[in-house]
Each structure stands twice: as C-alpha cells, then as structure tokens.
Write a structure and sequence with these properties.
Strand order of the largest sheet: 1-4-3-2-5-7-6-8
Largest sheet: 8 strands, mixed
Number of helices: 9
Order of helices and strands: EEHEHHEHEHEHEHHEH
Strand content: 15-25%
Length: 270
C-alpha cells in the first residue's frame, strides 16, 4: 500500500527510494521508519518484511492501518510501501524485491536498526543530484575508526582490500550499508546473492558495469554506531567467508546482464 504526506517544505528535486529489509526488528523498526521519514527529501520508504518471526509484521500492519504513526514528523513528500515475503530468504532476497518495487530516481539501502543515521542521506545523494557521480558509498572509516571493534575493523579492511584488488576501485569501506545508486544502474545489475553477500557482489557488478559504460563512484564520510549480537546483529563469521567467495566469484566471473535494461534517466535539479 502507498501513503503520502505532503508538508510545505520540499528540499530536493530528486526522489529517493529507501529500501529497508526487515527481519525480527520489532523493537527498532518503528523508530527507524520515523527517523527515515524525517529526512528532508522527497522519498519513498520501500519496506520488505523478510517473513519475520517476532512481532515485526504486526508493527508494520499497524503502520499500514495508520501511517500517521510514522508520517507525523515527515519532511518532504513521503510515501510508505510495505511488502511481506512469504518465506524467509535473506537480506539479499529482500533487497531484490525492494529494488524491483522502487520507483525513485536514486536508491539506497537502510538497515532496520540504529547503526546508521538516515539524516546523512541528503549529503550522500548530493553528488548524484549535482551530476558528479552515479554511485556514492558512505564510508565509516573516512573519519577514523573510533568505536569500531578491532576484529570488525580488521575484517572490513581485508575484505575491502581484496575487493579493490579485483574491481580496481579505491574504496575504504566496501561493506558499508549506505550505497546510494542511480535507479537505472541498480535495476540492470544481475544480482543473485540472497543473504549478506550483497555488499561484495554489488560492488563487483558495479565495476563490471563501469567497464561497459562510464560509471563514477565516490565516497563520503558517515557516522556509525555498531551494535552487538546481543542487541540483534545478525551477520557472523560464515558471512565473512561468503564475502570472500563473492569477491572472487563476481569479481572474476560476472553473471550475464538482464536482457531488458532500464532506460537512463536525467535527474532534474531543483
């Protein structure tokens, strides 16, 4: 379902699709949606519930019944669209659904927890809006690594270095959630990974795409508040091994592109 609130202010000329995969986030999801709705941009929240087993579905159904619980503090034209996966398939599969449903000019992923600050999204969209890039990565390391666990930092550095080796990029944070991508780019990438392999996979596919057509990718600094496994963090050691596989698999042997490409869009500046 789609809902909209149209307040007086509209601060951007680009519509942003914020894809939010959700799994067992009953405690956090409503707060996250409210914070995302408050971002001062025209946007849609594309929420994909990955067959949650806790009370997440009930919370989202309440939002469907009364969207004012989320939209009361919204800024910019804000739509809410909620989709429920019939079975749990993983974050990547939820993102595939969200990207397919997205109707904005630019797409970004927002995890349904409180690790990333959605108020930083306008600054990440700005290089695309200005025509300076097609892809923007929000790097958690450009401002240093204060607050990061040592092993988290080490693993990220190693994975990013391995990804850079195969892609030719010079990224500092390949595993970041905040990847802001023009819709006409993300919609043609032949994404396959259904779990947490999405991050290295999409980075490798963007590199292959850049060899087919000009693609400018830049990084901008973002803040980050990591949460622990006790607080609900789901990624684990086996996902790190999967990331290594994805770096090599998609970096060296990309799957074929989809036959139907999405037409290029010209982003109008306000």
């Amino acid at each position: 379902m789609t809902f909209a609130l149209r307040p007086d202010e509209r601060t951007f000329g680009v519509k942003l699709s914020i894809v939010i995969p959700v799994y067992n986030e009953e405690r956090h999801v409503l707060d996250v949606l409210r914070r995302v709705a408050a971002v001062p941009m025209d946007k849609e929240l594309v929420i994909v519930n990955d067959a949650s087993r806790d009370g997440t579905r009930h919370v989202l159904e309440e939002v469907e019944r009364d969207p004012r619980s989320v939209l009361a503090g919204a800024r910019g034209l804000t739509d809410i669209r909620i989709f429920h996966q019939p079975i749990n398939r993983g974050k990547g599969a939820a993102l595939h659904r969200g990207f397919a449903e997205a109707s904005g000019d630019v797409v970004v992923v927002q995890d349904a927890d409180l690790e990333y600050d959605p108020m930083e999204l306008p600054a990440l969209v700005e290089p695309i809006r200005q025509g300076e890039a097609e892809v923007v990565y929000g790097s958690r390391f450009l401002r240093g690594r204060k607050g990061f666990p040592f092993w988290h930092t080490l693993a990220n550095r190693l994975l990013t270095a391995a990804s850079n080796l195969l892609t030719g990029f010079r990224l500092t944070d390949m595993e970041t959630c905040y990847k802001v991508i023009r819709a006409d780019v993300i919609k043609v990438l032949p994404l396959r990974e259904e779990r947490f392999g999405f991050e290295p996979e999409v980075t490798a596919l963007l590199a292959h795409h850049s060899r087919r057509a000009a693609l400018r990718i830049v990084e901008r600094p973002i803040s980050y508040r990591p949460r622990s496994v006790k607080e609900g963090k789901k990624i684990g050691l086996k996902d790190a091994f999967r990331a290594v596989y994805c770096i090599v698999r998609y970096g060296a042997f990309p799957p074929p592109y989809r036959k139907e490409a999405v037409p290029d869009r010209t982003l109008a500046k306000p």
